Amino acid sequence: MEKKEDQKLETTETTNNSRRQFLKSSGIAVGGIAVGSALGGILGMYGKEEEAPAATPAESQPAQQHDHALQYFTNRADFEKLGQATERIFPEDENGPGAIALGVPYYIDHQLAGKWGINAKEYRQGPFFEGVPEQGYQSQLKHHQVFDLGLEALDKYSQEKFDALFVALDGEQQDEVLTAFENDEVKIPGLRSSLFFELLRKTTIEGVYADPLYGGNKGMAGWKMKEYPGVQMSYADKVEETEFLKIEPKSLHDTHN
Amino acid sequence: MVTKLPKTDVVTVGVGWTGGIIAAELSKAGLKVVGLERGGDRSTENFAMKHDELRYALRYELMQDLSRETLTFRHNSKQRALPMRQYGAFLLGNGVGGAGTHWNGMTDRYNPYDFEIRSKTIEKYGESKIDPELTIQDWGITYDEMEPYYTKFELMAGISGDETPLRGHRSEPFPNPALKKTPAMDIFFDATKEMGLDPFVIPAANNSQAYDNPDGQHLAACQYNGFCERFGCEFGAKGSPNTTVIPTALKTGNFELRANSEVLEILHEGGKATGVLYMDTRTGERFEQPAEVVAVTSYTFNNNRLLLNSGLGTPYDPKTGRGTIGKNYCYQVIVGNDGFFDDEKFNSAIGSGGLAAVLDNFNADNFDHSDYDFLHGGSVLMGQKGKRPIDENQVPSGTPRWGKEFKAQSLKYYNRHLNLYTYGAQLPTVHNYLDLDPTYKDINGYPLLRMTFDFTESDRKRGKFLNQQTRKILEAMGATHISDDTNMDHFDMTRYQATHNTGGVIMGADPETSAVNNYLQMWEHDNVFVVGGSAYAHQSGYNATATLGALAYRASEGIIDYSKKGGSLA
Ligand SMILES: Cc1cc2nc3c(=O)[nH]c(=O)nc-3n(C[C@H](O)[C@H](O)[C@H](O)COP(=O)(O)OP(=O)(O)OC[C@H]3O[C@@H](n4cnc5c(N)ncnc54)[C@H](O)[C@@H]3O)c2cc1C
Asked: In 3D, which of B171, B538, B568, B105 has the Cα closest to residue B356?
């Protein structure tokens, strides 16, 4: 029992040491900010802009993001196409990064490879019938199959309409294609095109704002744009505050490490 | 093969709020209780990673696994009922603590009017006021009889609250002061007071200060960091079965908690239950647990389903109106508006599940209905539960749903948006009921429950009226833009509204029109107590849990009495 406690202590020590080590070597001034929170931001790659001097190579050279590889897609072209579609849903603009820079396509890839992709916690017994909209999802297809068919249809429809693949279209044309999907104007055997569009929209937004743990919301930049502080332990002394509080976000990584 | 276990005094089917309360009260009184819970065990230590919106709120980590079991739904008997394949309108609890682990914590008593709704309506407005389509009936109990049990529930869960003149009398003040108000709540208070209304802070199980309850359980103080609804509290600062009644029951030594134990049937012979048949969900082994008393505490849906699948009670027949099991299924009328404030900026992430400004001026019979063609009303709220970033992307009407403008507007308004909504009453009719689905089965081969449900004309009128109030208040609060009113054409299974499903095993004074008496004891099987929202004869304009908690205390008294002298308690 005691031994375990000791070990635990030791690990924390090591983590703290490596944190200090990192801070020392990175040359970043942490100021009054709790080490945990600042570090979370730095490891999250964007760092605290005002405190991380531009000269720091860490800013332009992010730590390797090992989860940015493919678990579900087998072919780069499909992944690129998915990326471009998500970028139209949540584009880069003067507010900050869009879906691609946020890692959203990786988020979706990982979701399709996991239990959501195969509707693991959903009722999947037949018979399947189309219901009224208020009866919800009644497709015999699993989420990952909806993406497979939907992405295939993106190209098919783009070819028909513009004689080019989806990725070769300009932004406005891509929007036109996606709008047709949204409005159920695209015929896909076995699938309403709006179902694909709705899942694409839903997962894109998830990838922007889910904890970076899941591969999107890179550097918590989704949260930063929204001025959402992420994972905070207590607001007990802030709940009555009338001024808007600028709080540097933290993530589950900070809670856990 | 079924292994027969030694007999116990009482077995509970499920260990959530109602099962937990029954277990605590009976084991304190010296009865031996076995709690069978189909889901796993868990407590505060399991919630360190709770600030994960995706895992808990959108992938339903703590909820019933629908691949094993769900229900089917149709609007009316002409439609084909189809399974609820994914979650939407409501979320079903699973695991020790039930939905009580991940509830928000808003804690309302029902209005004195509710318990005698039929008599009081006739007394004041005459019988013709009641739409013949509605099957409202008195509950067989009065508010005064309920009052001591509400108090017990509130003291146990450490409810933090404000007094208001528009609710029933209280024998004791709330055990804790109301939660702190956010600046947005001050705007709601100022605007509604100006309108001559009576705002207050809704009573909540999110404790405003550290608290020791009468059973000696310690609750920490709420940190206002959101993540209550759909999440367990990592500080133990929310009154939940896990922080209160379950440890209390375990402390007595008279309570045996068996997790991963799914009850398949209630066994009975000669009009009396003999126990339950259950399965260890990990090994697949089946057991018979004999018991003197069976407490059915598995939430509204499985309370109904287990009775129907076990052949207990008389199923309701919507054609003749006879029979009771499945009758008066009700939900809730939830309407409202989003308000967008161009000149304000709120700290929208800050809040607590049960933190809300509320008013009851349009609830129950608190206003004169002579000039309205509907009964009852609802509470009007502005919640401050801590906005979550994936779920909350409200934009003013007319904004595209995606693309550049959506992005800009959803970012801009995240901290400049407030939502007003209602918990509106939803009154029963012959057309809305629960029975067994003829087609779809659960993983063990038992029929799923089938819900036949839609809003009635009177619900739509009540909804419209309540929506006018939320809009007016937002205008008075200075909202720059206000979203469209809620569409009440049909009940929508895909939009989250509330896990406030009631009825089907309703209480009353007459065995012809109710399934249980006012101790929640079945008229037809006196050693079966069916405890939960399933006992409500209608849905009122409030959050649903305090009333089922109070009824669980009452049923506990009934079971103790029954175990001494037997027979019907009414
Ligand atoms: C997200 C959310 C927020 C909520 N917020 C509020 C709120 O703010 N205010 C409010 O008043 N109410 C709220 N509620 C509702 C509240 O949680 C329920 O009213 C309350 O938990 C019901 O208590 P119960 O004992 O009937 O059911 P539960 O607490 O759900 O317990 C039932 C238990 O029975 C178990 N069970 C079911 N079938 C079987 C079986 N066959 N065998 C063994 N075990 C079984 C289940 O696994 C479950 O653990 C909320 C609910 C949810 C989901």
From this structure: B105
Domain contains A70: no
**How many separate domains does chain A show?**
2
- Which pLDDT does position A53 carry in this prediction? 39
Domain that holds residue A164: 76-226
User: Looking at B102, B417, B500, B538, which residue is catalytic?
Assistant: B500
- Please tell me the distance between residue B139's alpha carbon and the centre of ligand 1 in angstroms: 22
- Do B67 and A230 make contact, defined as CB atoms within 8 angstroms? no
Strand ranges inside B47-88, DSSP E: 71-74, 82-83
Query: Under an 8 A CB cutoff, do A206 and B58 touch?
Result: yes
Give the span between the Cα atoms of B42 and B95, in whole angstroms: 7
Q: What is the pLDDT of residue A2?
A: 36
B293: tokens are: 């008393």
Q: Which residues in chain B have Cβ-Cβ distances shorter than 8 Å to A226? A: 389, 410-411, 414
**B510 alpha carbon – ligand 1 mean position (Å):** 28
Both A23 and A111 in one domain: the answer is no
Q: Classify residue A191: in a domain, yes or no.
A: yes
> Hey, is the C-beta of A228 within 8 angstroms of any chain B C-beta?
yes
Same domain, A17 and A111: no
Q: What is the pLDDT of residues A123-179, one digit of tens each?
A: 999 999 999 999 999 999 999 999 999 999 999 999 999 999 999 999 999 999 999
Name residues contacting ligand 1 (CB within 6 A): B 13-19, 36-39, 91, 93-95, 98-100, 102-106, 229-230, 262-263, 297-299, 302, 354, 499, 532-533, 543-545, 548
- B112 preceded by cis ω (within 30°)? no
Rounded Cα–Cα distance for residues B48 and A255 (Å): 8
Q: How far is the CA of B477 from the centre of ligand 1 (A)?
A: 35
The whole-number average pLDDT for the span B387-399 is 97
* Residue B65 Cα to chain centre, angstroms: 19
pLDDT of residue A4: 38
ipTM (interface predicted TM): 0.96
Question: A35 and A80 in one domain?
Answer: no
**Same domain flag for A35 and A80:** no
Count H helices, E strands: chain B?
Answer: 10, 24
SS3 letters across B454-516: CCCHHHHHHHHHHHHHHHHHHHHCCCCEECCCCCCCCCCCCCCCCCCCEEECCECCCCCCCCE
Please identify, by atom number, the ligand 1 atom nearest to the C-alpha of residue B300. Answer: 26
Instruction: Tell whether A37 and A86 lie within a shared domain.
Output: no
- For ligand 1, pick from B25, B34, B36, B38 the residue to mutate: most ligand atoms within 8 Å of CB: B38
Claim to verify: residue A101 and residue A205 sit in the same structural domain: yes
Contact by Cβ (8 Å): B542, B107:
no
Contact across the interface for B85 and A137, Cβ inside 8 Å: yes
What residue ranges of chain A have pLDDT lower than 70? 1-63
Looking at the structure, tell me whether residues A94 and A164 fall in a common domain: yes
- Tens of pLDDT along B486-544? 999 999 999 999 999 999 999 999 999 999 999 999 999 999 999 999 999 999 999 99
Mean pLDDT in residue range B264-290: 98
The answer to whether B500 is a known catalytic residue is yes
Instruction: Tell me what pLDDT residue A62 has.
Output: 58
pLDDT at B305 exceeding the cut of 50: yes
Q: To test ligand 1's pocket by mutation, which of B103, B496, B502, B520 has the most ligand atoms within 8 angstroms of CB?
A: B103
The pLDDT, as a whole number, for residue A65 is: 83
Domain assignment present for A38: yes
Kindly report the protein residue whose alpha carbon is nearest to atom 45 of ligand 1.
B14
* pLDDT given at position A61: 54
Q: Which residues contact B349 (CB under 8 A, 6 or more apart)?
A: A228, A229, A232, A235, B226, B386, B387
Is the same domain home to A89 and A194? yes
pLDDT at res. A57: 42
Query: In A, which residues are within 8 Å of B75 by CB distance?
Result: 132, 134
